[in-house]
Every structure is written in C-alpha cells, then in structure tokens.
Design goal:
The complex is a heterodimer. By secondary structure, chain A is of the alpha+beta class. Chain A has 5 helices and 3 strands; from the N terminus they run ααβααββα. In chain A, strands 1-3-2 form a 3-stranded antiparallel β-sheet. In chain A, β2 and β3 form a beta hairpin. In chain A, α1 packs across α5. Chain A is elongated and about 60 Å long. Chain B has 7 helices and no strands. Chain B is elongated. The chains are: A alpha+beta, B mainly alpha. At the A-B interface, α2, β1, α3 and α5 of A face α1 of B.
Amino acid sequence: MKGIISQLRKAFDHRIRLGVMSMLMVEEWVDFTHLRDNLEVSDGNLASHLKALDREGYIELRKQFIGRKPNTSYRATDKGRAAFIDHLAYLEKIINLQRGEQ
Amino acid sequence: MTRSPNHPLKQLQDIHRMMERTSKFIGLSGLSGVGAGLFALAGAALAQWYLLAGGLNGYSHSLHYWPAQPHPWGWSPMVFYSLDAVFVLAGALTSGIYFTTRRSRMKGQAIWDPLTKRLLLSLAIPLLAGGIFCLAMFYHGFFGFVAPATLIFYGLALINGSKHTLHDLYYLGLCEVALGCFGLFFVGWGLLLWTIGFGALHILYGLLMYYKYER
C-alpha cells in the first residue's frame, strides 16, 4: 500500500502535472495550446510532463488536423482519473491528520 | 509529517483553481454589456419616437399600436419593429464581439475554444426556443406578452450559460426573469420593460463587472 501511494505522489508531485490532470478531469480533449496557456509554461516543459503522464498511462493523446494546422489534444484515461481521485483522497487525509495534530 | 503544513492544502487550492479556469469562459468583457445596453436604449428611444409620431403617447399601448391609417413615416409597425430589433441585435452583438476579442487579445487567451462554443450553445438553446415562442405569439396576435416573454427566455438563457462563465451572470439572469414575470401582469408596458431589462440592467451589470474584474 505504501508503495502505491509513493508512486502516486511521484506522478502528481509537480505543479504542472497536477495542473494538467486537474484540467483533464473537468474537460474531455483539451488541446496542447490551451494547456500551455493556462499553465503558463513553455512548450518543451509541458511536453516533457505530458510524456511522463502518458508513460504512467494516465492520459491519452489524439492528433488531428484543424484546417492545415496539426492539433494534439489530450484526455485523462480511466486509470488516470482513478489515480487522481486517489490522490485527492490522499491530500484530504493529510489535511485531516494535520488538523488533528493542531 | 515533515512536509510544510500548508502543502496539501495549497495543492488542493491549485487543483480547484485549474479546474475552474478550464471549465469557465472568463473573457466576456463588462464593456460589451455596457455597449449592448446603450444600443438597447437607442432602440427603445427609436420605438418611442415612432409611437409618438404615430399619435400615441405614453407606454400604455406600445406594442398594440396597429393603426387604421398608415404611419406618417410610411413604415408599418411590423416593418419598423423588425428593423429596430435588427438594429439593436446587430449593435449588441458587434459590441459584444468587439470588446470580448479585445479583452482576450490583451490577456493572450484563445477566444474560439470548446468553452466558448459550449457557452454559446447553452445560451442559444433557450434563446432559440424563446424566439420561436415569441414569433408564434406575434403570429397569434398576443402582442402584449412578447416583451415579458423575451425577458424571461433571455434570463433563462443567461442562467443556463452562467455555468460556463462568471457566476455573476446568474444574477443578471435572475433579474431578467423576475422583471419578465412581473411584466406578464402589466401588459402594454413592454417598451418600458425592455428599456429596463435590456438597457439599464445591461449597463449596470457591465459597469459592475468592469470595475470588479477588469481594472
């Protein structure tokens, strides 16, 4: 159990990865530029975080053309959604623990 | 627990902020509300002028004006009201699009994304239904109910659309619906209702939003 949690924490430990997942939880198929503009990151930076999430199997991507421009959009997989919800529960638990300590 | 105490809480706040930013269109400028309101006031003034020129004073018969003899301006009420409506609609849309694109450009946001589409769609459905409803009332001769009905449907459209944009739009919608419901019992005061609902309320709302979010 401990192993699973630390693995979760790693995938969501970065602000940008957390941001991407938050956005994909409320919206199906968000495109790259939308993610980039809302998170205020560079293309390369975002791409590496997306790759990390993709490697975990948390997101999937779709490439298509809008007019002549290539467009890549992303969606959270069921596995990604479940992991994110677990992460939220985990955060909540920590907060409750801290409340208890005070 | 060695982590800083506010770390998980801050993460949750970040998540909340991100979700909100993704699911809401926040580019609508308050100035577009002011612009739409001014066009509505101009349209109402034109209509009032038309009624006065036709020998009617006051509001009591505003939409019932169906004269036996031709209007001195040479336009039948149907033609005049339609032109007036087109003028107000075109003006409101133009100022809405202008100020909103200007704001998006200043903030570097994309304007035509899935969010805008969803906002427009949720606005359009009640508006379209309301438009057809009002045309049908025109067709059957219930002129007095047209003005309150437009306000009610417009307010419902705003309430429906408020899910996808600033929550403040919800309250503007409520005001429009309340005004429309009130107006159902004061048939013949349609022009005054329109002036308040589409003119004054828009300008008030637009200014509030402008000072709240854009300065």
